[in-house]
Amino acid sequence: MTQVPSAESAVQFTVTDADTAIAVGSGSLAVLGTPRLLAWCEAATCAAIEPTLAEGETSVGTRVQLEHLAASAVGQQVEVTARLAYADGRLRRFSVAARNIGPEGPGALVGSGEVTRVVVDAARFMARISG
């Protein structure tokens, strides 16, 4: 296992009409859609890994496991946290969790899971796919 600096982040979002299951095509209700929750989890992992990257490096998502456990209404604030759980070479696996935020702070668990990212050289990666 590679020693890398600890990596974690907490990012807050507010559910808008554009984030609902109706808007993202994943259902018929005006609540936070699972694809948007997934995007927010990936954003939290990007925020966590960014300070650990060398110049010219970036990361790409390669695997996601996510359980969407509770609904979030339009206007609800959601905090998404990402914490580095495992590192091996270029691979970084993050534990992610999303909670609705109320007046007393983080509340109901909205979702949890794991996001795996791989560190790559951005220019080499793009050159490879540009053919």
Descriptive labels:
Thiol Ester Dehydrase, Chain A, FlK-like_dom, globular, 131 residues, Thioesterase, five-stranded antiparallel β-sheet, HotDog_dom_sf, alpha+beta
The fraction of residues in strands falls at over 45%
Order of helical and strand elements: EHHEEEEH
CATH fourth-tier homologous superfamily = Hotdog Thioesterase
Radius of gyration: 16 Å
Largest sheet: 5 strands, antiparallel
Q: What is the CATH class designation?
A: Alpha Beta
CATH-derived architecture: Roll
Number of strands: 5
How many domains?
1
Average pLDDT score: 94
Q: What's the overall geometry?
A: globular
Work out the helicity level. 10-25%
Briefly note the structural class of the backbone.
alpha+beta
* Alpha-carbon distance between the two ends: 33 Å
- In CATH, the topology is named Thiol Ester Dehydrase, Chain A
Q: Largest beta sheet: what is the strand line-up? A: 1-3-4-5-2
Description:
The chain is an alpha+beta fold. The chain has one domain (8-130): Hotdog Thioesterase (Thiol Ester Dehydrase, Chain A, Roll). It contains 3 helices and 5 strands; from the N terminus they run βααββββα. The protein has helices at residues 21-24, 34-49, 122-130; strands spanning 8-14, 57-68, 77-88, 91-102, 105-121. Strands 1-3-4-5-2 form a 5-stranded antiparallel β-sheet. The radius of gyration is 16 Å and the shape is globular. Residues 15-122 form the Fluoroacetyl-CoA-specific thioesterase-like domain. This is Thioesterase. It holds the Pfam family FlK.
